[in-house]
């Protein structure tokens, strides 16, 4: 990826350069339009003089009128053509920016998403990209067109009509430039505010839709609607404010041109009176002045598009330039599935007062299963996230097969790990496609095999369309336990050398959990497994059990070893006792 331009001007310049093949012909057509536009008043002036002198009549008059008509049609055709040419290029800019944004978002770690709200990020990909696109397309060519027309018209006024008249007529223009500068500053601030407000509104919509069931269950619809109305009003007010500032361009143009008209008619009349100017020349001059309306409007329009674009690019740039939380500098791929070694690991979440992990060390030989237990908030999930390199530890290192995790490419590392989070996500696709996420080419037999191992096959066959039933946001809603088992089937099908189960069976009953773990043991084929669980029965058969407490490794050993320490010395032994007791109470 090429360097990210900091300013909108640099971004647009770079884009125009790369798409010169679209911009140059469009600019050439605009130049032709400008020339024709300037030629028309000149021609009309000459015709007026011809008519006044009674030189122009009959066929010659018709011919001159036909030329005028041809020029008008020509301008129309060229205007259509340049817009078609340009829009192709400007849309390309939108596509490029959205791709860039998407790739960046996909590469960002949890830290990024923790600090930003989803709806706002979505607004960036729509509203803000649109604003930048308009600046790169419309604004650039309208700016070019306006400037060219302005230069041609003023030059013709001076050279073909009268320099003195032009100088006097242009007197009010510096005042207009000053007004434009002042307005554009406000447009920038107001646009930025409007984009931000829209982001907030978008965020509220996203959050409400995601949590609509909870809102309803808690009877919070009214409060949520009121909040929405408030944000919608704020977004509308902010847009209106931006519009209000933009609306000031037009009157400024009108005032300036009226003043110019008064001045030039005064001086022009005097000049005609003294025979220094023909009536036709004064007519042309008046028409030329009228033609300055477009460059002036263009200036106002370009300024507001540009300021909107600048505000949007500022927001987009902040996201695109945000450094990736995780470096992908490693070169080794694929992973070497050997012993998993954790050495002096320390990690704190941003802004946290106490570290989530502090000085954790252990070694797990390849192909073994480790049970990771401990009270809530002890750092179990955090440890898995560090293994996945979603976050980077502040101290210590993890090696796998003798290679530091950071030396693997991120892609290879993540392909080497199958991770089942506690609340897995199912995408809007069929159950079969959801299971085959990591291996889309897997056969139906392989998918079913994985589903059987995850003890979810029976459940799936009972769905309306079996394996082809759509699930996810737009499909059948599966229960928490079913979702977890589908996710386990997905992880088993991926067949990665390291399997991480993050309390992945919490919504499954004890017997089913037992069956799944039994299948896992039978099929493990040298796979290393880390099981985080609240239920100790899930880890009792593990080769080793690690107890984490407050980010420290407090116990390490097999089930039997830990129990042998007694309930006074071992958290594990104590918990085991409690859970056994609970289980026997349930059985009664
Ligand atoms: P466990 O999985 O053992 O229940 P976690 O690893 O989820 O514990 O959490 C360890 C500690 O880190 C807890 O104190 C928790 O509040 C904190 N924590 C977890 N995730 C985040 C996060 N994304 N940002 C800040 N703090 C977090």
From TrEMBL:
Main location per the UniProt record: membrane
MF terms (GO), sorted A to Z: ABC-type transporter activity; ATP binding; ATP hydrolysis activity
Pfam families given in the database record: ABC_membrane, ABC_tran
Transmembrane segments: 20-40, 60-82, 139-159, 165-183, 252-273, 285-306
GO BP term, example: lipid transport
Compartments reported by the entry: Cell membrane
Domain ABC transmembrane type-1, chain residue ranges per copy: 26-308
Gene Ontology terms: cellular component: plasma membrane
InterPro entries xrefs: AAA+_ATPase (IPR003593), ABC1_TM_dom (IPR011527), ABC1_TM_sf (IPR036640), ABC_transporter-like_ATP-bd (IPR003439), ABC_transporter-like_CS (IPR017871), P-loop_NTPase (IPR027417), Type_1_exporter (IPR039421)
Membrane topology: Multi-pass membrane protein
Record has Transmembrane helix as a keyword: yes
Domain ABC transporter: 340-575
Keywords recorded for this protein, A-Z: ATP-binding, Cell membrane, Lipid transport, Membrane, Nucleotide-binding, Transmembrane, Transmembrane helix, Transport
Listed Gene3D superfamilies: ABC transporter type 1, transmembrane domain, P-loop containing nucleotide triphosphate hydrolases
PANTHER family named in the record: ATP-BINDING CASSETTE SUB-FAMILY B, MULTIDRUG RESISTANCE-LIKE ATP-BINDING PROTEIN MDLA
Protein name listed in UniProt: ABC transporter ATP-binding protein
Protein species of origin: Vitreoscilla filiformis
